[in-house]
Here is the input.
Amino acid sequence: MRKTAPSKPKRSAAKRERPQQKAPKAGAPIPMLDLARQYHSIEKEIGKSVQAVCASQRYVLGPEVQAFENEAADFLGAKHAVGCASGTDAIWLALVAAGVSPGDEVITSPFSFFATVSAIIRAGARPVFADVDPGTLNLDPDAVNARIRRTNSARIRGLMPVHLYGQCADMTRFAHLVDEHKLAMVEDAAQAFGATWRGKFAGTMSIAGAFSFYPTKNLSCYGDGGLVTTNDDAVADHMRRMRNHGSRQRYYHEEIGWNSRLDSLQAAILRVKLKHIDDWNAERHERAVAYDVLFKSAGLLSTRSAKDGARPVVRPLARNKDAHHIFHQYVVRVERRDALRSFLTERKIGTEIYYPVPLHLQQCLGYLGYGAGDLPESELAAQEVLALPMYPEITPEEQASVVAAIAEFYA
Ligand SMILES: Cc1ncc(COP(=O)(O)O)c(C=O)c1O
Here is the structure.
């Protein structure tokens, strides 16, 4: 088991021999994500491992999944890792195995992907939202504390921070809240494979941590896939049963579970990619630093908040002292966001908005009773955030073109 996590990138990507890749032509489109570049760099390894699975004829769970689970647990320093069909299912498995039951309430972030909240509802619980920290956009421990005190509800049983964009939420403060309010905590680590908080890996600082291997994720497979980690033997055992129809022994069902198994082809692909994840995460970090430098030298960067209006771009706040950010996404907050996005689209530069509507304002969650103005930091972030192209293989020239286009827009 790997006992310690890197508190900063393990080594400089500049020193790593980068796989041969054709330099994109000047003026060529710059996509938000280019998975083909990664695929070309590992094509032979992937081909071999996929062929081996086909030859084995073991397609669902089986030795390949078990090997991946062992390697992922070892990488993260967790006692157990349980593969499953998606990140959405991973959150559901984590919540159920942590003891969240119908009638409970679970506090989480309103500034996340929909699965964060839908998994709570699928576990039979009611989501409760607290606002985010405007710097990191992660769930704010002060807001959580205030929400618990204001509600004074004995039904608040669960807490689920989300490690957004690849940076851990403040797990030290959340651990104190767990003790004080007797909460069951699980982590949505879907965007944070390899991120750390004070030397511990995302997904290993609570009862259970949930990961997604959706193709856009920093560690991804070639379809849907997910993983749950835990240090608790009984929780692991429960999650293994629940991912397989609540059954330990075929055709004998102890409880109502689900079909949420990881297939062997995805596991084989993930085993290949796991060997590269330290390098890829280090390269993402370097690309993020490169964006910071480019924005600064273009005179676009505000050192304070998006609201001060002095400069149009606010870089993502990385809490370097405690958190090692793996930059699953590089997300800036900008003035006139939608106009900037259209301008970049015209110049064939891909961008995304994670997320345009905070969860408490989603139409289907109206029954929870939230309205506009209830969670102002999340609502403001939804109007200002813009994710820029970010992947280990993006070239310095492409990054310079992205920042130059943004400078042109604000000139
Ligand atoms: C924060 C977060 N939670 C949960 C999920 C759900 O993962 P999946 O798409 O693998 O179901 C995602 C990914 O889309 C995510 O970004």
